[in-house]
Specification:
alpha+beta; Glutaredoxin; two-stranded antiparallel sheet; 4 helices; 9 strands; 30% strand; globular
Length: 152
């Protein structure tokens, strides 16, 4: 289980354009908000993505990366539909969600299943996790993330 103060696990994955994104490439340059969400085009995930979009200008010196298991093509549609100004990572092989411990057992309507637990990691320019938001509630989350960035 990752803790605040740990070095952020590095990864290389593909974005919506099938371009490789390597977390460590931002080290020394930008803070990173790495947010994990269950699925493109669903109500909570759309609200969260649009909250990041609507507040994008407030994220100075910060890269926002959304991560789900959705395909690059689905990410492209999601980005186009909602005019998202940041990249979405496709983690179909579940390597990133497993490194960050967000692939967990969930339950809905009494059924148990594995899925992404909505979580956000604020990573500083040195590659250190400064804040972890587990089991995120979408409402008010942007304000929490922006406050965490102010404290860096």
């Amino acid at each position: 289980m990752l803790k605040e103060g740990n070095k952020a696990p590095d990864f290389t994955a593909i974005d919506q354009n099938e371009e490789k994104v390597k977390l460590s490439s931002f080290k020394g340059k930008k803070n990173v908000v790495l947010y994990f969400y269950p699925k493109d085009m669903t109500p909570g995930c759309t609200t969260e993505a649009c909250d990041f979009k609507d507040n994008h200008k407030k994220f100075k010196d910060t890269v926002i990366l959304g991560v789900s298991l959705d395909s690059p093509e689905r990410h492209q549609k999601f980005i186009a539909k909602h005019e998202l100004p940041f990249d979405l990572i496709s983690d179909a092989d579940q390597k990133v969600v497993n490194k960050y411990g967000v692939w967990q057992e969930k339950s809905m309507y009494g059924k148990k299943f594995m899925g992404i637990v909505r979580s956000t990691f604020v990573i500083d320019k040195k590659g250190v996790i400064r804040k972890i938001f587990p089991k995120v509630k979408v409402k008010g989350h942007i304000e929490e993330v922006l406050q965490a960035l102010k404290e860096l």
